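1st attempt posting a full record on here, be nice pls
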Amino acid sequence: MYSSRYSTNISAVFKVGLVVGVLVLITRMLDLEIVKGDIIDHFGGDRLRSVVIQAPRGKIYARGGEVLADNIESKKNVVFDPKNGYVKRKSFTNCTS
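the predicted structure (as tokens):
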């Protein structure tokens, strides 16, 4: 069917095409990151924002209808102390935000 010379040529063309494709991608990546990076940061910097999503858990009821657990908002700070490790502290300042 095919000679080994023909399959070697196809293999060589495929390898050259693969190397050229990778070089094109690397060149484009360097162009976007290094050359045009400041311009992209300038226009794209205002697109990110923080949004607080309220996610109440809901009440847990017993069979008779009495509330076992309710939604109570609490703010906690987790602080790393080199001597004691992580320490959770309740912070009741600005709880309603």
